[in-house]
Design brief:
Largest sheet: 7 strands, mixed
Structural class: alpha/beta
Shape: globular
Mean pLDDT: 80
Radius of gyration: 22 Å
Distance between the termini: 43 Å
Helix content: 25-40%
Low-confidence stretches: 1-5, 140-144, 294-316
Number of helices: 12
Number of domains: 2
Strand content: 15-25%
Strand order of the largest sheet: 8-7-6-5-9-11-10
Order of helices and strands: EHHHEEHEHHEEEEHEHHEEHHH
């Protein structure tokens, strides 16, 4: 199978501390030796570009002013192939989870930086840490307002769609093989939209649809070491086993196109794709042969939400991504707790869905992602979501 690569960046700290946690001991030591600060900045480091006066890494700046030290995904690809070709490891080291991949459009800017020695590396890390701490101590009230404003905007879009004003909502989730996250073994979806009632009353009725698809070509790739293997435990219908990878991938593309057509037909609003962790799931969309740029997916961020379509403009053509992780951060801030962002399983429990089970099945996870989304938007503007924390 040809590997599809989705390029982006990884935080230096995630590469140093998180990536090694998921590797066996025989791969761990060679990787740590390569990533050692002294080795990275050595004049003979193979990551150095020919003729460069040092090692080129990157600094990414987020819209809130925070800056992070980054390596590119191409550099990680080089590292894993270098370790393999040099005989330091017997097999290619698996890439970090897509949960750690950062897309360029998530950041305000990405700038290269040349590190000439170990001292310069440590100096950059120190200066970034000081800068980020100053920003963190700055205006917590305004940061809280940003995330809460985003949730209120999403609630307004939901209310408009429920009244027949346009917009359809589709939650999508993916499961990949824990040893190689480019191998997507299953995906699931759960969607909600509103259509005109046939009685001529002018009202609308809610329509829901959900499903779970499994790639038969990948049935030998089973999880169980790091995450549960719940592929066969879909709770909301019958799983559909797709015989070939091309059909498996085209089915997802067909689904998104179908729901895009719904959005054009039913009020002219956008298609809102709902994920729990937008970064990794958008990468999985790309792995499933969906051209994100052609689909015009825009990530929602505070103060950058799309304006509703005007009647004179016709149907909206864009697809927007909503992240329940970010929404839940707003809910937590409104509740006055310092609880950090949580996994889907814990978030769903906090929102009171005691019957939820068999997570890490893509169909179940899509169902609960949509359920959590609805719970967070249905309270009405200015309302609070009732939480039952599972500390």
């Amino acid at each position: 199978m040809a590997e599809i690569t989705y390029h982006g960046y990884y935080r230096y700290t995630d590469i140093i501390f998180e990536w090694p946690k998921h590797l066996p001991d025989d791969q761990l030591q060679p990787l740590r030796a390569f990533l050692n600060a002294e080795a990275l900045t050595d004049v003979d480091c193979p990551l150095r570009l020919p003729g460069a006066d040092g090692l080129e890494l990157f600094i990414g700046e987020w819209p809130n002013g925070h800056k992070r030290f980054l390596l590119s995904s191409k550099q990680l690809e080089f590292i894993r192939y270098y370790l393999y070709q040099s005989g330091m490891v017997d097999v290619l080291i698996s890439l970090p989870s897509f949960a750690y991949l950062i897309h360029a459009d998530e950041m305000k800017a990405v700038e290269p930086i040349i590190l000439r020695d170990q001292l310069s590396l440590r100096r950059v890390l120190r200066d970034l840490d000081k800068s980020n701490k100053r920003i963190k101590k700055g205006t917590p009230e305004s940061r809280m307002t940003d995330v809460q404003r985003e949730l209120e905007e999403i609630r307004g879009r939901w209310d408009t769609a429920k009244k027949g004003g346009g917009g359809v909502f589709l939650a999508v989730d993916f499961e990949s093989w824990e040893m190689d996250h480019s191998i997507v073994t299953e995906w699931g979806y759960a969607g909600v939209r509103w259509v005109p009632m046939k009685d001529g009353s002018g009202g609308v009725e809610e329509m829901r649809e959900e499903g779970h698809l499994i790639a038969e070509d990948y049935k030998r790739y089973r999880n169980g070491k790091y995450v549960p293997n719940n592929t066969d435990y879909y709770r909301f219908g019958t799983s559909e086993r797709i015989r070939t990878l091309p059909l498996f991938r085209s089915a997802l593309k067909d689904l998104v196109e179908k729901w895009s057509s719904f959005s054009s037909e039913e009020g002219g609003g956008p298609l809102y794709l709902i994920f729990h962790d937008t970064t990794s799931d958008l990468s999985y969309l790309s792995l499933s042969s969906i051209d994100i740029s052609t689909m015009q997916i825009n990530l929602l961020s505070p103060s950058h939400l799309p304006s509703p379509p005007k009647p004179s403009e016709g149907p909206a053509k864009k697809v927007f991504a909503l992240d329940t992780k970010g929404m839940y951060e707003s809910v937590i801030k409104t509740a006055g707790t310092k609880t950090e962002k949580r996994s889907l399983e814990t978030m769903v429990a906090d929102l009171g869905f005691e019957e939820a089970e068999k997570f890490h099945n893509a169909g179940n996870d899509a169902h609960w992602t949509l359920s959590a989304f609805v719970k967070m938007v249905e309270v009405g503007k200015g309302g609070k979501v009732v939480l039952t924390f599972t500390e």
